[in-house]
Amino acid sequence: xxxxxxxxAPGNSSHAALALTLLTTLNLVNYLDRYVLPGVQPIIQHxxxxxxxxxxxxxxxxxFVYMFAAPLTGWLGDRYPRKPLLIAGGLIxxxxxxxxxTVHTYHELLFRHAIxxxxxxxxxxxxxxxxxxxxxxxxxxxxxxxxYVAIPVGAALGYLVGGMLGQRFGWRxxxxxxxxxxxxxxxxxxxxxxxxxxxxxxxxxxxxxxxHRETVLGLARNKAYLLAVFGMAMWTxxxxxxxxxxxxxxxxxxxxxxxxxxxxxxxxxxxxxxxxTWLGGWLAQRWLRTNHRALYLLxxxxxxxxxxxxxxxxxxxxxxxxxxxxxxxxxxxxxxxxLNTAVVNSVTATIRSSAxxxxxxxxxxxxxxxxxxxxxxxxxxxxxxxxxxxxMVAMVISAAALFAGARFAxxxxxxxSAAAPAV
Length: 423
Fold this sequence. Notes:
The chain has about 425 residues and is an all-alpha fold. The chain has one domain: Up-down Bundle (Growth Hormone, Chain: A). The protein is built from 14 helices and two strands, in the order βααααααβαααααααα. It has a two-stranded parallel sheet with strand order 1-2. It starts with 6 loop residues before the first strand and ends in an 18-residue tail after the last helix.
């Protein structure tokens, strides 16, 4: 039976490539909007006379709303077309970013920054689910690694736009600049991308390995899913805390100006993010040919290898802070594509949006919702180096969870095999 005109049928490689390109662009803009705030954080802190605890609460509030919007978003995504829901989310986050530039009190800033989380929660659930309906399980690590390369690039642009424009034109200007690309990219996606057929690329070889992969209630017994999500939560605690507080750390402890800190972190995040995410995806894709646990194992080892660089960055002499944080971030980014793919492959298409929604709730509830505030609180009690050291503890816990999760990794058709249909 032919697919409805409004849907993209499986096997249409042009639709798949177009969707991946536009969704990757939207993901970049998503993170650009998110990381403008850390880029101008010291200016806002000075203008509003805020403590480290209060400034950390801004990011915690964003992720608090983000994670509580996720369950409803996931429920809708498993029952209704995802394209209009994704578009609505893009418009919400872009308009809220624009309005952030108009605030005049701390509580207004807190409220409007939190609203951005509603829109971003929608996108981060629906985009991987749409991509999973366009590419077979054997190819998802590759395409999701491309999709997630946009995270460090967008974050780098956020640092750059925030730090450089903020120092020259004031902290409001970067929010105006960041909001416009999101609106344009969302409208282009609306115009060009059809809704894919749900579950079109889930081959029989990738399903039927247990009812816990096919029902929401079964997630409580799905150890491959639970351990991947917990490992990602601890990874998110680390990367979230570092990304929010590192511009302030460089300014306060290493003597960098706001613009130079933003530029340096932007370059590091972009280079590490692109290189680390690409290399991690490539290594995992090759490792999967001989070991179906590769997505978990590579992610676990990447967390452990990031710890020495983080230790030197937080407690070493000032002149080694930037190269040390570059090394730590590179290893953390290795797991971006493989770890997200492990979560996607641990469930079937019938519950994928709900599973991703629950994942988002948990990784933010345990990860970057508490981490900025906890790090800020510890910093107020001692210093920022001690606060940031908590991220290394989280890296160890993440690695332990992922080593355990590797035992339950589902067996899928290996990359390059003929067991799963190509798109």
